[in-house]
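Newbie here. two chains, one complex. Structure please?
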Amino acid sequence: MTAAARRMVVIGGDAAGMSAASRARRLKSRGELEILAFERGPFTSYSACGIPYWVGGLVNGPDELVARTPETHRGRGIDVRTHTEVVEIDLAGQRVLARDLDPHGEGERWYGFDDLVIATGARPRRPGMPGIDAPGVHGVQTLDDGRALLESLEAAPVERAVVIGAGYIGVEMAEALIQRGSRVTVLERGDQPMSTLDPDMGRLVRDAMSGLGIDTVTGAEVTEVVTGEDGRVRAVATKMSEYPADLVILGLGVAPETGLAQQAGLPVGDYGGLLTDQAMRVRGYDNIWAGGDCVEVLDLVSGRTRHIPLGTHANKHGQVIGSNVGGGYATFPGVVGTAVSKVCDLEIARTGLLEAEAAAVGFQFEAVTIEATSRAGYYPEARPMTVKMLAERRTGRLLGTQIVGREGAGKRVDVAAVALTAGMTVERMTALDLGYAPPFSPVWDPVLVAARKAAATVRAAERH
Amino acid sequence: MTAAARRMVVIGGDAAGMSAASRARRLKSRGELEILAFERGPFTSYSACGIPYWVGGLVNGPDELVARTPETHRGRGIDVRTHTEVVEIDLAGQRVLARDLDPHGEGERWYGFDDLVIATGARPRRPGMPGIDAPGVHGVQTLDDGRALLESLEAAPVERAVVIGAGYIGVEMAEALIQRGSRVTVLERGDQPMSTLDPDMGRLVRDAMSGLGIDTVTGAEVTEVVTGEDGRVRAVATKMSEYPADLVILGLGVAPETGLAQQAGLPVGDYGGLLTDQAMRVRGYDNIWAGGDCVEVLDLVSGRTRHIPLGTHANKHGQVIGSNVGGGYATFPGVVGTAVSKVCDLEIARTGLLEAEAAAVGFQFEAVTIEATSRAGYYPEARPMTVKMLAERRTGRLLGTQIVGREGAGKRVDVAAVALTAGMTVERMTALDLGYAPPFSPVWDPVLVAARKAAATVRAAERH
């Protein structure tokens, strides 16, 4: 005698949703658990983070960017319905209304669930302004976006490209377009590119981008996408000026896609992302789970939630949800806000809090900046880097680290990320036993040099 | 009215000794503290770790390898006496006997001290066997060794070179000689190269070295350096065979140079290194300090002392000693046994305990090995790497990590080094917020993949 199978319904077929489905499937047989996943688009389990490299010609796509196709998932016992959009969540009835986007398909139908996983992702921010929907204006959020952009790039030579927004996706797309031979201008509303860094570190990025031939215009408030007689984009206008453009990329970041969840009454945080508990259950609900770009996560340093859309988090969330739905136990304790990015040979990384973020949650701190090299100074290709470190006053606890440099700079941020997770003081960090050999590091690793200066500064501040 | 200056005497003018001197000098004026440093050789503050790269032609030497010359130190108020060897420590009399090695110099003289810093370093192991002192047999411990080796290499073409010992210095020298166009054979007594790795990981190194054109002969017990009629090295003989050689490098590691200290009755550990307290005072003595390659350090994972001759530790020891002698306060909490090395494009790293080391101190553990790539699989130059991880049974605490791979593999060991320092479990490590972007890492960093497998294995073991 077997009990009827429970049903797990997943909304969204990308990293978080399909990781959850795959993990649950490994733990529970088909007889125990039916898994049904709805995806609006044609693809599942793909790397949106790879799109800039596809556009830049470093990666073939979209096939290479798809980790698992719908067919693969189906072969493993997950009923994936692509081109199918969930349009309503009925919590009281424990069911979702799914619409087949194929006009000749099934139309709308209700599906009951025992466990529901919301993995609806994020949507790119699109400012409401004239011309924003004109041909030649591209987002880079989905593989379909990537394909449309490539068609645009291949249809006619793009002499001038304008990227709106100098965050991660903006600078990565600037690199991609430079590699395709375009002249690139990046328009940024703020005072510096990379608002994920402190302004002094953002300035280093700006200088380096300039050296790479990328113009960055800051304080640029875009007012209009100017179109030509053919209706295509011709330029981007700001309050102050106009920048000719054959192509425009929107790199303004993304917001959690939680309209559906909010209509159902599920709780969201300050950034519009769903709020979950340690097990990735939506707060207050036993059998509703959420993960990926549609949730807010606990920042272990600030103690607040934030919205950090990153594939690496989405995959972890999915694993945790799948383990729990599958009858195991796992938690996602939170993040420390690590991010790393590159523009050509420039590497940019951060973890923990920026100065403004630390101040906003009430920390008093010392901030120090040092210059060092990636390898022993005498070793070939020792490249310079700048490391900035924030440490709390009194306790000396590490609060954040930012790095801007060349090859060998970016992933050094991981040392600070682990130290933050462990609540380490900068004094303790000065004695960390990091890997040393001339091809890998100076005898004092740059992170240790920063920790030494931070520790000395905290001590000096106590004496006053 | 000023008190008479105290005197700090330093034995050994390399990393630990001169870091201690420099740090103390920054904290105390000449009127407060006189600093006298004795160095047997001609150089101070140099990077012995850079010698393989000098020999390989990547680095100019020896000037580039000297961080601070005796003149620089003197200009900063440190009285450096080069070519001067301390031949006796008189603890009761608080004085040392120094001998001027210049036959026309001052001869022997006693110098009193208030604080004594022992930084006598390590000496290369030289097996007592026929021919070991023949021309063409070279150690690579000092800059003079490096110079002699280069002269030998430049005097006549070296078609065949034999390296005795396949530890760090042995494999680095193998790389250097390959780069100079020699055929290189490495003779290793043990079953695998890199006894600092578990045998299964050492095998990967051996295979990779073979691919680089370096022959590694294991189980090779060297019995004799065979010389020709000219007295120069002609071959190296083992119990089983004979290997033709125009040049022989001794890469058998080093032992703490503590004869002087032991004659004075100072305490040494199992490896012959001086034993110190947290502040780097020699145990049981208030004003005798020791640091660098002549001390044993506390291994924070095993709870025992070990001898780890590495410039990065020597510099930290010197900083700690100099701070304390200078009236400040600092400690060296210990090491986790991190080391990283490369042979051509092969990167080799470890931290924490090997299987045999963990077992020897009574740990029960699970060991797992995974394969992963340095970047997202679809990104160009994603290079494979193997990560092995040891976790304690029951607690799941990380005990050690070993990595063998190509570009981007080695420094990933730092994540495990910090996690070990923090006493993290592999379960907690699975959620670490490490930097992710396709050029830097797959969506699951290789260290996280290993941690996931280790955590699952520890859980599974508990169920039995």
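Moderator note: Chain A touches chain B through 65 residues (CB under 8 Å). The longest helix of chain A spans residues 446-462. Thread marked as resolved.
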